[in-house]
Structures are given as structure tokens and as C-alpha cells.
Write a structure and sequence with these properties.
Radius of gyration: 19 Å
Number of strands: 2
Number of helices: 3
Shape: flat
Strand order of the largest sheet: 1-2
Distance between the termini: 51 Å
Strand content: under 5%
């Protein structure tokens, strides 16, 4: 079976489309994911599944023994440290 072609977007963002004035803002995330999934070949879909599995395993290993509260506190402290040196961090 021949694999479907991969769609190429003008700015590398599957949620954006080209207009006369440049790329339009991306739509909702679920639409971008759906369109990206529709353009993956069967091999691409399989690779995506393997990657998701690897990421889930790594995330589980990294967060082992850390409560949600501890994680939230750590992120808050790191964001504050970033802002102290003039960096941009997510709002509190």
C-alpha cells in the first residue's frame, strides 16, 4: 500500500494557513492535532504512537514519588527565579 504524502505548511505550523498578508493565527489545538493526524502516513502514525509511549514512560519515571503539590511548588519557584533574572516565565 502506498503511503499518503505529508502536507507541508507555510510556517511549519499545521494549524496555520497562508494568506496574502502571511500566515493566519493557528486555530484551536484540537483542530491542529486532527489535521496533523490526517496527514501522517501509516508509518508516521505508528511512530507517533511509539513516541507517545516513550514520553509517557519518561514522564512517569521523572515524576515518581513527587506529589502534584510538590511539583506545583517547584514550578512556581523556578518561574520566580526566571523572572528574577529578567526572563519570561508563565504567570503565577
Amino acid at each position: 500500500m502506498a503511503e499518503r504524502p505529508v502536507r507541508v505548511w507555510p510556517d511549519g505550523d499545521p494549524g496555520a494557513s497562508a494568506t496574502a498578508t502571511g500566515p493566519s493565527p493557528p486555530g484551536p489545538a484540537h483542530r491542529r492535532r486532527r489535521r496533523a493526524a490526517e496527514t501522517l502516513t501509516d508509518g508516521g502514525q505508528a511512530a507517533k504512537g511509539r513516541i507517545k509511549s516513550l514520553i509517557d514512560g519518561l514522564r512517569s519515571q521523572i515524576h515518581e514519588g513527587i506529589t502534584d503539590e510538590e511539583y506545583a511548588v517547584a514550578l512556581t519557584v523556578l518561574q520566580r527565579m526566571i523572572r528574577h533574572v529578567g526572563g519570561a516565565a508563565a504567570p503565577r
